[in-house]
Specification:
Blueprint: E1 2-4, E2 7-10, E3 15-18, E4 21-23, H1 27-37, H2 46-54, H3 64-76, E5 86-89, E6 93-96
Antiparallel strand pairs: 1-2, 2-3, 3-4, 5-6
Helix pairs in contact: 1-2, 1-3
Length: about 110
């Protein structure tokens, strides 16, 4: 069981909760969330996600990860303009934050235009 920022993921039963609310995820959404939360605080490259979640070393579409990430964020209530759970590290990959950015002492940055 992984629990980070109130999100609990049970890999053995493939169940997810945000607080007390259970959330249903598709197979790929769950696999993406699991790949990120199991390494919370670490940057996970898009290449790694393609290998582990989609079991491929080539990109079927440049938007595959982004589309699934959007669905995961929406279900978890993570605003993509000011994410506090899953952040994008440009040129590096994605990170499930171990703490909310404001709780970690980092000021929120305004979205760039």
């Amino acid at each position: 069981m992984f629990e980070v920022q109130g999100v609990r993921v049970d890999p053995s039963t493939r169940r997810v909760w945000s607080g007390e609310r259970e959330i249903s995820f598709s197979r790929k959404e769950f696999d993406l969330l699991h790949a990120l939360i199991s390494r919370s605080g670490e940057i996970v490259s898009r290449d790694t996600l393609m290998r582990e979640v989609w079991h491929t070393s080539f990109w079927t579409s440049s938007k595959t990860i982004d589309v699934h990430l959007g669905w995961v964020r929406r279900k978890l209530g993570d605003d993509p303009r000011r994410p506090h759970l899953i952040t994008t590290v440009r040129g590096k990959g994605l990170r499930f934050e171990a703490e909310a950015p404001h709780a970690a002492g980092r000021p929120r940055q305004a979205a760039s235009a």
